[in-house]
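Please think about what follows:
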Amino acid sequence: MKPTGTLHLIPVGLGDAPPASWLPSDVRELAGRIPTYIAENAKTARAFLKLVGTLRPIQEITIHTLDAKTDAKQMRAWLQPLLSGGDIGLVSEAGCPAVADPGARVVAEAHDMGLRVAPWVGPSSILLSLMASGLDGQRFAFHGYAPVNASERSAQIKSWEALSLKHQQTQILIETPYRNDAMFQALLQSLKGNTRLCVARALTTPDEWIASHAVSRWKTLPAPDLSKKPAIFLFLASR
């Protein structure tokens, strides 16, 4: 098979912390020399590149913006130069690209084109919180966001709890930071007392905080400070 260029999957930070604390030096060096990127948001991609440092001026780095309207034809056009060699980076808004992220569509196109895909080590809020939760790390499901409507949200949480009980599967979800407090209270109100709930806030940053308790125990404790801070919630039903 003829060698091709490489689509590099480069993780970015989860919050305000120096890159040396969450990204290996070889990945930082690689990120700094890649001439072309595909990103959800060009502004945040440039901020990431400024943090890690680049060999060329940032304004000379090409950044293609990926959104819900980007079709396969456009993605293949971005990747076309890799058929002749070279490197392109793929970054997410936060954490690992293509994990709970639209970048997965770009990766699928790269594979269909016979290109090399290289995943690099860096932070993933899903895996980091699962590691720290004490919940089942062999069977788990990430759901993204729950419904915003209170009654629909409660019904969805109870449905996920039923799945958790049936399969002994950890359930993982996130929320928009300004709705974190409402989500936390909804979890306490909707889950059974013996279900274990983990809350992980501001992972990899100086404000990182992680706690895991039965829901009945959570109800006796002061509510955590989650307002306007990135957080992820995990729970596992108990038989």
Observations:
- The longest helix spans residues 150-167.
- The mean pLDDT is 96.
- The beta strands are 6-9, 36-39, 62-65, 87-91, 116-119, 140-145, 170-174, 196-201, 209-214, 231-236.
- The first strand starts at residue 6 and ends at 9.
